[in-house]
Amino acid sequence: KNEVEQSPQNLTAQEGEFITINCSYSVGISALHWLQQHPGGGIVSLFMLSSGKKKHGRLIATINIQEKHSSLHITASHPRDSAVYICAGSNTGNQFYFGTGTSLTVIP
Amino acid sequence: DVKVTQSSRYLVKRTGEKVFLECVQDMDHENMFWYRQDPGLGLRLIYFSYDVKMKEKGDIPEGYSVSREKKERFSLILESASTNQTSMYLCASSLRTRAGGYTFGSGTRLTVV
Q1: Which residues of chain A have pLDDT under 70?
Q2: Which residues are CB-neighbours of B81 under 8 A, at least 6 positions away?
Q3: Below-50 pLDDT ranges, chain B
């Protein structure tokens, strides 16, 4: 079993829809990361959070430490949001635990 | 703009060849990492380095070695490439404190034939 589990694995949405990707973790972490990877491209860090909620444009990330759960929300989704979204946990020992990613396709 | 640069986007090598993947960062980061990414398995850590000339094995170091002679450069070496090393390889760097999180390179897709 992975230390970090994401759901769903694949997601297709219509442009404009509200999207939620979920992440659960079973190990102790000090920070939770949301990463974005476009096809054939590198990985961009979207958020790093240890509590509460962060917002950047149409993206919102939340974390519930007691439940060991985080969500990434995309409001008013757009085809350019199509990418793989990866959840990762890190601890103070610089160890990272990666989820296997959620592949999002937004259809015009 | 801060960057992690990987020397090649696509690489095709023959079985048994020695392969060098180069990674350079311009952020004065202490930590550097090499991952491979495979479908259904996510990112797996091969090696990491906390400082010049220091290296630590990750989860899947077999068949790989690394070199960090300068702070900004971290090289991944496949001593004798095999077909099961066909993968996407990603380099990343971070400050020692990880205060700014990770910065990833754009990846090298290696095919071993």
Answers
A1: 1, 41, 93-94
A2: B13, B14, B15, B16, B17, B18, B19, B110, B112
A3: none
Tokens of B99: 């205060």
- Which among A30, A57, A12, B100 has a CA at the least distance from the CA of A21? A12
DSSP-assigned letters across all residues of B52-106: TT--EE-S--TTEEEEEEETTEEEEEESS--GGG-EEEEEEEE-TT-TT--EE--
Q: pLDDT by residue (tens digit) across A31-62?
A: 899 999 988 768 888 999 999 999 999 999 99
Yes or no: say if A13 and A106 are a contact pair by the CB < 8 Å rule: yes
Q: Which of A40, A45, A99 lies closest to B101 in CB terms?
A: A45
Closest residue of chain A to B98, computed from CA coordinates: A94
CA distance A20 to chain B (A): 20
Q: Which residues from A are below 8 Å from B41, CB to CB?
A: 100
For residue A101, which residues of chain B lie inside 8 Å, CB to CB? Answer: 42
> Hey, what are B38's tokens?
């495979």
